[in-house]
Amino acid sequence: MPAEAKVDELWLFGYGSLIWKPPPHFDRRIPGWVTGYVRRFWQSEDHRGTPEAPGRVVTLISRSYWEQLTDHHDSAPERVWGVAYRIIPERVAEVKDYLDIREINGYTIHYTPFYPAPSIDDNTNDPLTALPGKLPIQTLVYIGTPDNEQFVGPQDPQKLAEHIYRSEGPSGLNRDYLWGLEKALDELSPESGDEHVTDLSNRVRAVAAAAAAEGKGEVVVSQTDRKNQILRAQSPVSVSLDGSSSSLEHQHEHHHHHQHHEFQKVSSINEQEETEKAS
């Protein structure tokens, strides 16, 4: 729903990697959903692939348009879950410039109402989830519409999963983006899963397992797991009184076992590690 909306403050809706890789200079982060759209891996980009064989990332499709298409995933939730970020007013112009660069590859600006999850109470003591006085929240969202050159449209789910499995670019494996989105959605709410994302994730896992079993591919290890393996190799070893040994990094990992997706505000654009296209 493109519009030239003028708002007193900027709220940004993230439905892809913005869920777990937030923008700079935000002071509120609220989980919830938008309606009237369908989320699909129908946008191509070369940060998770190459210019000759681009990877796949998510975009939103108007539900009324999607209903006219033949999609092998023929159902979609009424709610597209994600996260709304309130940008610090003094930083709005700076963040808009940053987002225009981050979303330059086929994405355009739109505005849509955002509905906070029922678990978010405006009486909360946590300022990070404090709600504005007027609901729903009017949010800015970047969408790759069907008329942009990177839009690929409906694809056979198995072929799409195989393409995601094979794709890798400057920002890493395409499957890491897919699995990162699946994990981030599952952590928002018991109701925030997306069948399209889950089915693709399961198909890619099956492709990876089959490739490993046939000796045609390595056992899939995510970027996070690779980093942990490196840390384990470099970590000092401690010896307990019973003679057993373990790395200090492993002890630290066990201690923080339940901590996922820590959202840290950054003080400048230079501190933002990756772009939305690089997620």
Automatic annotation (TrEMBL):
Signal peptide: none annotated. It comes from the Eukaryota. Keywords: Lyase. Residues 235-248 have a biased composition (Low complexity). InterPro entries: ChaC, GGCT-like. PANTHER family: CATION TRANSPORT PROTEIN CHAC-RELATED, GLUTATHIONE-SPECIFIC GAMMA-GLUTAMYLCYCLOTRANSFERASE 2. Residues 230-279 are annotated as: Disordered. It is an enzyme of class 4 (lyase). This is glutathione-specific gamma-glutamylcyclotransferase.
